[in-house]
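Appendix B. Chain record.
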Amino acid sequence: MSVDTAAAGRSVFAPVFLLALSLLAMAGYQTWQLFQQQANLQTVRANQEPAVEESQRIRAQLQSLTTGTADLAAAGNQNAQRIVDELSRQGVTLTANEAPPSTP
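Structure tokens predicted for this chain:
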């Protein structure tokens, strides 16, 4: 019976309090980590912006060049036709600018 009286005298407050405190600490640490990761991702994205803008500018220039080549090929330029044929043989399709519809 001494075991029952010793167990009855102990409180569950301390273990439950320690468990709650550890869960709160864990949640706080994970929240802090998430904020750090978010800040790091924002920094990485900001550092990539100039490279993305440059690639978009180069892509627009390349698109203009290929469209001009396709237009020349459609107009009958032999050299441009050879370039278009070679690119199509390699799997690259160039499309010429379509003339805007004329209004009567």
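Further analysis of this model is presented in Appendix C.
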